[in-house]
Specification:
Pfam families: BAAT_C. The protein is built from three helices and ten strands, in the order E-H-E-E-E-E-E-E-H-E-E-E-H. By secondary structure, it is α/β, with parallel strands linked by helices.
Amino acid sequence: MFLRTLPEVNAPGVGILSISKSGDLALSMASFLTGVSATVCVNGCNANTVFPLHYRGMVVPPLPLATNKVRATESGVLDIRDGLQDPAAPENQGTVIPIERANCKFLFAVSGDDGNWKSCDYAEQMMKRLKDHGKDGSEVVVYPTAGHFLEVPYMPHCATGVHAVLGNAVVAFGGDPSAHALAQVDLWNRIPEFFRKHLDNDRNCGLAE
C-alpha cells in the first residue's frame, strides 16, 4: 500500500476513517487489502451498497433496495430509513462484507436517530460477526438521538439534504440538533485516541486472513 511508504507513517499499517457509503468501502479495504491496522466506520452499512464491488475477479453485489418502504413525510421530505433490505436475511448474505478477514480493529460509531439507514442494526450485526469468528477488541459507540452525518465538531447539523442516489430527492437524515452537536464533539475526541491506540504500537500488520 502506497501510504505505508510515506515517512509520516510510523505504524506497520494505516488507519481508515469513513462515514456513510464510504463505510462499506472502508470495511472492504480492511477485509481485502493488506496494511490496514485500524478502521473507523461512522454510520456505515455492513453490506456493500449502491454499486457492485469488483476485486480480483470477485464481485460483491449491492444490498437490494426496499423501495416499497420509502415514504414521504407531510413536508414532502422522504423517509428512507427502511429503504434497504436486511443484510442478515439469507438471500442477502452475498452482499455482506467479510470483515472477519480483516487484520485490524474497528470502531463503529452509530446514531440511534440515523434517518439514512439502520446503522445501529448494522453495527450489531458486525460485532456479532466478529465475535463469532473470534475477533475481539473492536468497539461500538452509540449516540441515541444523533443523526446520520456525524461530522467534525461545530459543523452545522444536517437534518435534511439532497440524496444523489435517489435522483437528488430531499431526505431526512435525523437527529436532535443539540444531541447531534454533542455527539460530534465526543466522537471526534474518540477517533484520534482510537488511532493512537492501534497505530502507535509495534503490532505486526500482516495479510488479511
